[in-house]
Specification:
The protein contains 7 helices and 28 strands. It has 396 residues and is α+β, with helices and mostly antiparallel strands. The protein folds into 4 domains: 163 residues, MoaB/Mog-like domain (Molybdenum Cofactor Biosythetic Enzyme, Chain A, 3-Layer(aba) Sandwich), CATH 3.40.980; 57 residues, Molybdopterin biosynthesis moea protein, domain 2, CATH 3.90.105.10; 80 residues, Molybdopterin biosynthesis moeA protein, domain 3; 71 residues, MoeA, C-terminal, domain IV (Beta-clip), CATH 2.40.340. Strands 7-4-6-5-9-8 form a 6-stranded mixed beta sheet, with no helix packed on it. A 6-stranded mixed beta sheet has the order 16-13-17-21-20-18, with helices on both faces. Strands 19, 22, 24, 25, 26 and 28 form a 6-stranded mixed beta sheet that branches. β20 and β21 form a beta hairpin. α3 runs parallel beside α6. The protein is elongated, with a radius of gyration of 31 Å. The mean pLDDT is 94.
């Protein structure tokens, strides 16, 4: 077995540098990863404008009464010049003339017969200065950012209509096992529902991947090899769940080799996630994930999303932070780093949820993340400090 850190290092070394891109309209870029820094093409605001409905007056104009020379609403070009003792009535967002130092709110003004006086005007200027938010050439969104509603709004506002983004990663999902069925009507002795296929399909879609293939296969070497060969022609990443350990019916490693891929990782010192296969070749990238759903969930976030990031120029890291244990924990000491589904209490402490092993996917729904318990530990006192890993879904 190799360590988690070594496995991640191998993955990064084998995938780095593969980032195909394309240019698309900004409004179609939601969920995509920017391939280059995006710089503003306009100033924001593009001109000095009023922040309130009110009267614009020149800087240091000492007049007590002002002649109203016009009214300007948002969207109009405004007037070119004001003279001392004159004012222009401006609406919110309207341009103010050059030299204006202040806009007095309508609520602080009395207008009559074309003239206006101000009653206790505030000291605030109520003017949004040209380029005070963004100037031409300012970087709006950096390369590697995932485009969401806020990014689309900002890019559009800054005059950017098209962006260079990484191409979507295509994923093929293959669940293996003679025991798997897709319909409750097919359940019988020794049979279970195929949960890994739907889990992987939804996880990949949630993170912006295109699912190009999804199928369930029996433990049949020729069928498995043919299916992987087909998947490699239709996807950038092939995800195979089950059949990657060392049992009599674990045929995936041999099928991977027959498809011309080189296996770089086969066992990692984590629980769950020990039988983790990672292979690459000219035809593509393949992950052989464990057969139990909690292990699939963990390894997808720890390894597959990192690979997706490397393929798109996006940096993905699960969130890891230190937290203290709510109660004493006793366990059989193991030889692997353990990911234990846990919740965070109202007091900010970590408390493992009821968990029966890596087939118990229901336990994950009641957890906030996974405590990372190092190998060889038999007893942890209440208050012990541990690391916790959470997998935050992109939801913007």
């Amino acid at each position: 077995m190799i360590s988690l850190e070594t496995a991640i290092s191998i993955l990064q070394d084998k995938i780095r540098g593969r980032v195909p891109t394309e240019t698309i309209p900004v409004r179609e870029a939601a969920g995509r990863i920017l391939a280059a820094d995006q710089k503003s093409k306009v100033n924001l605001p593009p001109f000095d404008k009023s922040a309130m409905d009110g009267y614009a007056i020149l800087e240091d104009d000492p007049s007590e009464t002002y002649r109203v020379v016009g009214v300007v609403s948002a969207g109009e070009p405004g007037i070119d010049k004001l003279e001392p003792g004159t004012t222009v009535k401006v609406m919110t967002g309207a341009p103010v003339p050059p030299g204006v130092g202040k806009v007095v709110m309508i609520e602080q003004a009395v207008e009559k017969d074309g003239y206006v006086q101000f009653e206790k005007p505030s000291a605030s200027r109520h003017i949004c200065k040209k380029a005070e938010d963004i100037a031409v050439g300012d970087t709006i969104v950096k390369a590697g950012a995932r485009v969401g509603p806020l990014e689309i709004s900002n890019l559009t506002g800054c005059g950017i209509s098209t962006v260079e983004v990484s191409k979507p990663v295509r994923a093929a999902v293959i669940a293996t096992g003679d025991e798997l069925v897709d319909s409750p009507s097919d359940l019988g002795p020794g049979k279970i529902m195929n949960t890994n296929g739907p889990l992987l399909c939804e996880l990949t879609r949630r993170w912006g991947l295109d699912v190009t293939l999804s199928e369930v296969l029996p433990d049949d070497p020729p069928k498995l090899t043919k299916a992987i060969q087909n998947a490699l022609t239709r996807a950038d990443i092939v995800l195979v769940s089950g059949g990657v350990s060392v049992g009599d019916f674990d045929y995936v490693p041999d099928a991977i080799r027959q498809c011309g891929l080189e296996i770089h990782i086969s066992r990692v010192a984590t629980k769950p996630g020990k039988p983790l296969t990672f292979a690459t070749g000219e035809k593509g990238i393949l992950f052989g994930l464990p057969g139990n759903p909690v292990a699939v969930y963990v390894t997808f976030h720890v390894y597959v999303l990192r690979a997706v990031g490397l393929l798109t120029g996006w940096t993905y890291e699960p969130k890891v932070f230190k937290i203290r244990l709510a109660k004493e924990r006793r366990q059989k000491p193991g030889d692997r780093l353990a990911f234990v589904p846990s919740r965070i209490t109202a007091e900010g402490l970590a408390e493992p949820v009821v968990y029966h092993g890596s087939a118990h996917i229901n336990a994950v729904m009641g957890a906030d993340g996974f405590l990372m318990i190092p190998a060889g530990i038999e007893r942890l006192p209440a208050g012990a400090e541990l690391k916790m890993m959470t997998f935050e879904e992109w939801s913007r």
